[in-house]
Design a protein that fits this description.
- The structure is a single chain.
- By secondary structure, the protein is mainly beta.
- The chain has one domain: Lipocalin.
- Helix content is 14%, strand content 48%.
- It contains one helix and ten strands.
- Strands 1-2-3-4-5-6-7-8-9-10 form a ten-stranded antiparallel barrel.
- A hairpin with a 5-residue loop joins strand 8 and strand 9.
- It starts with a helix and ends with a strand.
Length: 147
């Protein structure tokens, strides 16, 4: 009887571990930045169009891929991911001018906050305001979801 019980418990544990590995980036922590996913029109505080941004999940939901098109012709892309080894969110941004920005941070108090360790003073905050608009504080961009 004990052998049968141990066998059943082992089988349940093995199935549970396999199920967790089928979606390694589906945890609540890995979904903290999902509010940024979508097609966005980006405006400044005066309502002038700054550009458009498309954020999609790739690699089984492990990466948020950003594709920016500025109103003045600039483009850029970033990969955003949660690093389990140090419990941080990370972004690697590269644009068509060769500018690179590496950010690291955490989701805290309903906001995604990332800072650059190399470029002191560089900080980006993403959050929703009362009007359900996503704000990205770097250039005070107001993100309006495209329909």
């Amino acid at each position: 009887m004990k052998s049968l019980l141990l066998f059943c418990l082992s089988l349940i544990l093995a199935v549970s571990l396999c199920a967790q590995e089928e979606c390694p980036c589906c945890s609540e922590t890995n979904r903290q930045f999902d509010f940024w996913v979508g097609d966005w029109l980006v405006l400044d505080s005066a309502g002038t169009k700054l550009g458009e941004n498309k954020i999609i999940k790739i690699e089984g939901g492990c990466i948020l891929s950003e594709n920016w098109k500025g109103a003045m012709g600039g483009t850029g892309s970033s990969y955003n991911y949660y690093d389990r080894s140090d419990s941080t969110w990370n972004q690697l941004w590269i644009d068509n001018s060769g500018n690179i920005l590496k950010l690291k941070g955490q989701f805290q108090s309903g906001q995604m906050v990332m800072k650059s360790e190399l470029q002191k003073g560089s900080r980006l905050d993403w959050y929703y305001n009362q009007n359900e608009k996503l704000l990205q504080t770097a250039f005070l961009g107001i993100y309006l979801r495209k329909e």
